[in-house]
Every structure is written in C-alpha cells, then in structure tokens.
Design goal:
This protein is of the alpha/beta class. It folds into three domains: 129 residues, Nitrogenase molybdenum iron protein domain (Rossmann fold), CATH 3.40.50.1980; 109 residues, Nitrogenase molybdenum iron protein domain (Rossmann fold), CATH 3.40.50.1980; 139 residues, Rossmann fold (3-Layer(aba) Sandwich), CATH 3.40.50. Helices cover 45% and strands 14% of the residues. The chain has 16 helices and eleven strands. The protein is globular. The two termini are 26 Å apart.
Length: 418
C-alpha cells in the first residue's frame, strides 16, 4: 500500500472547510488529481458551472492553480499569485488558503504582499512551508490547526452538552453518512454537535466551536495538534476512546461510553442503537447454518490506522471468531498500537503484526484500490474498502467505516462473500 503524502493531506484538509478554497501555487501537473478528488469527496458547485471558464480555474471549480512555469522559478511567481487571487475574488466569496507545491515553495515568494496587492487581507493567507514529508494523518491535522490559528476564533461562552467532532477527515469512507451517524449517537445521549472540524465545518462553525464543552476524537491520529491547540488556547478538553476509533461494534460501544463518562450523560439510548445492530448481526449469522460455521476460523488481514486496526481486530477475533493473518499499522506508534500488541500476545498471535500478506486470506480490509486489486487477483475471498484512497463509486445507501453502520457493512460483505 502506497499512502498519500502530506502535501495531498494538506490540500484536502483545507478544502474540507466548507467556505475555504485552496489556491495551489504550482505547475499545472500538481493540480490535476486534486481538482477531481476534491469534487468527488466534497462536491459543492454544479459540474457545468460556467463561472469557472476563466484563467486559473480553466473550467474546474476546485483548487485553482497559478500554473507557474520555468520563468517563474527564476524570476518569481508573486504576480501570478496576486492575479489569481483577484480572479478568484471575482467569482466567489470563499476564504483562500495559498498552498505551495513542494517545488514552488523553494521560490520564496512573499505571499503576504500578494494578498495585500490583491486587496484580500482577512480573506486570504498562505499556509507556509510544505508538509509533504509528514504522514497523511499528521499533515491533515497540522493543516487544520494552522487554519484555526490563522482564523483566530475568540473564546465563546461554553454551551452545556455541546461538542465538536475532531479527527474525522473527509477522506474517511462515506464520511458524510458517517458524520450523520456519529451525530445520531451523540444526539441520542442528549448532546449537540457544534462543528465537525475537518469534515465539512464552515469557518463560522469553527468560530462557534470554542463554545463547545468538549472535543470528541474519532481517529486519534488525525487529532493530535487540533486537540492540543483547542485545549491549550480555549480550555476545551478532548475525549478519546480507550479502543481508538468507533469502528466495529466493540469500538463503537467503547467510544459511546467514553463520551458519556466525560460529559456525564446517560449512554443508554446510544448503546441501544449499538445493541440493536449487534442483534441484527447475530440474527444474520445464526440464521444461516453454513455461514455461521464457516465464519469461525476465517482468516482476515487489515491495513490501516492503529486506532482502526485495534478496534477491528478485537471485534473480528473476539466476537466473530475470525483469525488474523496480518495486521499492518500505518500512522505510527501509540496507545492503540501497544494495546493491539498486548491483545494479540495474549492469544499467541503476536507474529501477525507487520507480517507480509499471505498468498490468500478470506477477508482483506484495506483501502479501496488494494481491496479491489487483491480480490480480482484472487488473493482474498473478499476485499473490503474501509480506508482512503477508496475506489470511485456512487454512495447512496450509507456504508461508512465508523459506528454500527460500518459494522453492519463489514459483516454484510463478509457473509455475502461465502
């Protein structure tokens, strides 16, 4: 699996804010993938919007680009940045985040002067530097923290039982349905969501987020800097589940219980949602003798963030009776990596951590491209798309990675593969 780099994460994190638009300062080739990907992940304008048949956009509404060339690398490209800002201002009111491609960052143009010359003070700013060498989660998180800092939200009066969602990127599988589902679980406990920072929140949402009682972390790997900043600057504590992400029934239950304990609310209504899903899964398994017997001992492999691989492994192995063959973590060490290692050691399975993929496994849980490739090449019985980058598909019925909806999606894929 080749993970997307920190530069990609930076562009996507900025574009995850509803009224922010990235101006990519770089050559034409740097733009092509992002202008398509952002429209797929978070569509906003109509595909045939004629407003964008203009320079720097060239018919594509997302991620306008300065299209710098060899002369700009020699003489500087600040004039193009200034002109691009003026053109963008003429067709939209979004706040502009200027992000340099790794090459153009070496030019050293004064973007502050370009912003001033374009009359965009307070409506445009440069991210500064390049985050290409950072991991995808770390860069996504760091970009959001830098934008929050630049926006400079003031502390609002705390609204009891209001929370923010952090550490949930718009690259997560079917993230909009996933966000609705997480909101459903929170509202079942009497909580209201102020902002989902990094998953569609607007700048106004981010300004209002300082009045939340707590930040609820979904994937810890995507929330380190934002969590630390919000607590240090605005005194908002963060809630982290002991099982990592709310993935799989067990992970979702742990997430609900952690939120309820931290906010001193009753988790029962949200746990009832989890229990109903657990009952549906149990009924589906026990209702088919062949499938219920075949499920025991099926092998699975997972590639993903530690907060995902840990919660999924515990659920698939401990509850469904499946056996891990390879668990590959992407995203560094941390509590979830240590807990996963302890769990597997207690079952004599520690050798599967970081193990090469076997020639064949029954279930492969990974990013959409690898899941499809391995399944088509008969390296697995079923490849389950659970992480970015996903295959391009139309999603109408909810099939996110998180919560009980994600749990039912995984079990459905497994059972239907038999």
């Amino acid at each position: 699996m080749i993970l997307p780099d920190g530069f990609t994460a930076s562009v996507l994190a900025a574009e995850s804010i509803a009224d922010v638009r990235v101006l990519l300062n770089g050559p034409a080739g740097c733009r092509n993938r992002y202008m398509v990907l952002v429209r797929q992940l978070f569509p906003r304008e109509k595909p045939d919007d004629n407003r964008f048949q203009i320079p720097y956009f060239k018919g594509q509404s997302r991620v306008p680009c300065t299209y710098i060339d060899e002369d700009d690398f020699i003489n500087g490209g600040s004039g193009k940045v200034t002109d691009a800002l003026k053109v963008i201002k003429s067709v939209c009111e979004d706040t502009i985040v200027i992000i340099d491609s790794p090459g153009s960052a070496l030019i050293g143009d004064d973007h502050g002067k370009s912003v001033s010359d374009a009359g965009m003070e307070g409506k445009a700013f440069a991210l500064g530097g390049t985050l290409i060498s950072m991991g995808f989660p770390e860069s996504y998180d760091s970009t959001l923290r830098r934008i929050i800092e630049a926006v400079g939200p003031q502390k609002c009066d705390t609204i009891p039982r209001s929370v923010n969602i952090i550490g949930y990127p718009m690259t997560d599988k079917d993230w909009r349905h996933g966000l609705d589902h997480l909101r459903e679980l929170l509202e079942a406990m009497g909580l209201t969501m102020t902002a989902a920072i990094g998953a569609g929140a607007s700048l106004e949402d981010i300004r209002s987020s300082t009045g939340a009682e707590a930040n609820i972390i979904v994937y810890p790997e995507f929330a380190e800097e934002v969590s630390e900043y919000m607590e240090r600057v605005h005194g908002i504590p963060s809630v982290r589940s002991p099982m990592g992400a709310p993935v799989g029934i067990d992970g979702t239950v742990a997430w609900v219980e952690a939120v309820a304990e931290a906010l001193n609310v009753d988790p029962s209504p949200a746990l009832e949602i989890c229990n109903r899903a657990r009952g549906m899964i149990k009924e589906a398994i026990l209702g088919d003798t062949f499938r219920s017997k075949a499920l025991q001992g099926m092998t699975f492999c997972i590639e993903g963030l530690p907060s995902m691989t840990y919660s999924l492994t515990v659920w698939l192995n401990g509850y469904l009776g499946m056996v891990p063959a390879s668990i590959v973590n992407h995203g560094g060490d941390g509590p979830c990596s240590e807990d996963l290692e302890s769990y597997l050691e207690s079952r004599g399975l520690e050798s599967v951590i970081g193990a090469d993929l076997p020639d064949y496994c029954d279930v492969m849980i990974t990013n959409g491209h690898d899941a499809l490739h391995l399944q088509e090449n008969r390296r697995c019985g079923v490849g389950i798309d659970l992480t970015f980058p996903s295959t391009r598909e139309i999603v109408l019925l909810p099939k996110p990675a998180v919560g009980v909806l994600g749990s039912m999606y995984i079990v459905e894929e497994i059972l239907n593969s038999m």
